[in-house]
Specification:
The protein is α+β, with helices and mostly antiparallel strands and 315 residues long. Helix content is 53%, strand content 21%. It is built from twelve helices and eight strands.
């Protein structure tokens, strides 16, 4: 019986765009081209210290001990295959889609299973022909180590994973003639967003501008200004504590919104608990009344966390 164990690894998933159409047009020619492309892909995977886990039809799964080498392999594959496709007519080109994910998987013998593999396959299915899409776990490891650009695509819905998986399209080069992810997959939405962005609108000012831009130093300056104003007009009351609390709430909400790896519902519960605790302390009259809503928040947050873990382990 094969040993079953868990491990953290980088999953590389690839398949052919419009494979069925190519097979209908020329079965023997398509199979010969697939074999050549897959041999080239296998050679590059091995050169970057990866290994092919499985192949089926037009698909391929590989794993790498290094996240950086997995992305470099994907870039090399797309560049080499682009050169091969230049010799073919547009309707005969064989273009691969590649997805890469860093995640925990179940290893049984030479095979891999689990959400880590499923996410890579979902990323690959969402990539454009000739393109690469990576998860946020990969992006965190490669963003300053590989000379390519990245476009944030937002959360990608994946079965059994609440809130989706934040994903990024890889820009292989500015002169790359292949369509970008946004142009191919979200063409209409991108055009609508561009039109909306082009409309003239007043610039936000003050605290709202700081929240939208994520400029926490601006919030610090506003907070310091409030404290200074309170001290300069001192009449025995520290009134600036309440606007300072409001600024802290806005900053907390902005932080939760801009960090995709934070569960928003749990983050908001934690923030709400901290606000209640602060209000209780600032209005202290000898009674710790915040204990009951804090207990309720803890119960709801615990249920939410357990539910999320069960869904991640399911499938």
């Amino acid at each position: 019986m094969s040993e079953t164990r868990r491990k953290l690894t980088t999953i590389f998933s690839a398949d052919v765009q419009d494979y069925t159409r190519l097979m209908r047009a020329d079965e023997e020619g398509t199979l010969a081209t697939l074999k050549r492309h897959r041999d080239a892909m296998g050679r590059l995977i091995e050169a970057h210290e990866g290994r092919v886990v499985n192949t089926w039809g037009d698909g391929l799964i590989a794993e790498f001990p290094s996240v950086v080498e997995a992305l470099r392999t994907a870039i090399d594959v797309q560049n080499e295959l682009a050169g091969c496709n230049e010799k073919c007519a547009a309707d005969e080109q064989m273009l691969f889609r590649i997805g890469i994910n860093l995640g925990d998987v179940i290893a049984e013998g030479d095979d891999l299973y689990g959400d880590g593999v499923n996410v890579a396959a979902r990323l690959q299915a969402s990539a454009p022909a000739g393109g690469i899409v990576i998860s946020n776990t990969v992006y965190d490891q490669v963003r300053n180590k590989v000379a390519v650009g990245f476009d944030f695509l937002g959360p990608l819905e994946v079965k059994n994973i609440d809130g989706g998986v934040p994903s990024y399209a890889v820009r292989i080069g500015a002169d790359d003639p292949r369509p970008t992810f946004a142009a191919e997959t979200f063409g209409r939405r991108a055009e609508a967003a561009a039109a909306e962005a082009a409309k003239p609108r007043p610039e936000p000012v003050g605290v709202i501008a700081a929240i939208r831009s994520g400029s926490l130093p601006v919030l610090y300056i506003v907070a310091a200004g409030l404290v200074a104003l309170n001290l300069l007009t001192w009449n025995g009351t520290f009134w600036s504590v309440w606007p300072l609390l409001g600024l802290a709430i806005l900053a907390g909400l902005a932080w939760i919104k801009t960090n995709p790896w934070v569960d928003r519902s749990i983050g908001i519960l934690v923030l709400s608990g901290l606000v209640l605790l602060t209000i209780n302390l600032l209005t202290w009259r000898g009674v710790f009344w915040a204990v009951w809503p804090l207990l309720a928040f803890a119960v709801v947050g615990g249920i939410r966390w357990v539910t999320r873990q069960n869904r991640r382990l399911g499938s």
